[in-house]
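Let us practice reading a record.
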Amino acid sequence: MALLEIKKYPEKILKERASPVKAFNGALQKLIDDMIETMYAAPGIGLAAPQVGVSKRLIVIDVSSSAALKYQGNDRQEGYPLIVLINPEIVYTEGEVDGDEGCLSILGYRTVVRRAEKVKVRGLDRKGKSLEIEGTGLLSRALQHEIDHLNGILVIDRISPIKKGIF
């Protein structure tokens, strides 16, 4: 496994829609493993392939990791395993809630972002099997944040025009 370089705003790939994953091969498995290692080393609770310079619809999330302790107080969510989601799409949302977010591609910046309180996401696991995940709390927020990356949307795109002036 290898640590990957995390792309920083305003690199172009961060603002582009990622391409669907079509091949479930050794190269994809290596990318997944490298992304997981990079996420933990950062440390972060989620990482999308465009953040490491790869325009593919792939995310990794672990809201039970020690990095989760710094988000939303102590909202670390035990019992959720490491999540690998390929070609994810949000199929259901419920409610709205404001919460604090940061981003590994915009270091040192945190802001409050309004997101769905609950989400249901469908996608594929690393072997290409269908997967459906329901999330609330930090997991819901992480899923939405990472899927935003796949659509070329950054946390700064979700803030007020007044706050955008700093970028």
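A brief commentary: The chain has three helices and seven strands.
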